[in-house]
Amino acid sequence: QVQLVESGGGLVQAGGSLRLSCSASGRTFSSYAMGWFRQAPGKERDVVAVLSANGGSNYYRDPVKGRFTISRDDAKNTVYLQMNSLRAEDTAVYYCAARIPTNPGVHYRIPASYDYWGQGTQVTVSS
Q1: Which of 34, 46, 103, 121 could form a disulfide with 9 if both were Cys (CB 3.0 to 4.6 A apart)?
Q2: Model pLDDT for residues 55-73, shown as the tens digit of each residue
Q3: Nearest 10 degrees: CA dihedral of 120, 22, 115, 125?
Q4: Residues forming beta bridges with residue 10, ordered by sequence position
Q5: Could you tell me the sign of the dihedral formed by the alpha carbons of 86, 89, 93, 95, in that order?
Q6: What single DSSP character describes residue 28?
Q7: Which pLDDT score, from 0 to 100, does residue 119 have?
Q8: How far apart, in whole angstroms, are the C-alpha atoms of residue 34 and residue 52?
Q9: What is the CB neighbour count within 10 angstroms for residue 110?
């Protein structure tokens, strides 16, 4: 089992940057496929960026391509989401998620595929 704790959210002006961090407990972090998801008020939770356990496969939803970068540091049990050129429509609660993959090179885009979730961190972008 793994516990996830997100940090790094906050209020930023449009065009600014934030880096979200998700710290995981346990000694097998490198075995987990990881993902970042977000949920705006009144909307469903959607994928933002996901990464395979071996780091070789990733996916970004179209609106964040070229602006967001997902990465992992297995030595620190942490996954990051670097967010640049932020827009008002990026405002949401951002969640980190983890699961044991069927293959270390596989990523997962659907929230229901994940077994473990953090508590979320609020990102607010003012226009």
Answers
A1: 121
A2: 999 999 999 999 999 999 9
A3: 40
A4: 123
A5: negative
A6: -
A7: 97
A8: 6
A9: 10
Spatial CA neighbour of 97 closest among 8, 7, 1, 22: 22
pLDDT at site 26: 79
What token pair was written down for 111? Answer: 């929230």
Contacts of residue 67, Cβ cutoff 8 Å, sequence gap at least 6: 83, 84, 85, 86
CA angle centred on 85, ends 80 and 86, rounded to 5°: 75
Largest CA distance in the chain: 42
HSE (CB half, 13 Å, CA atoms) of 27?
0
Q: Which tokens go with 93?
A: 């609660």
CA dist 70 and 59 (Å) reads 9
SS3 37: strand
Closest to 93 in 3D by CA, of 34, 21, 40, 17 = 40
- The secondary structure element, H or E, covering residue 13 is strand 10-13
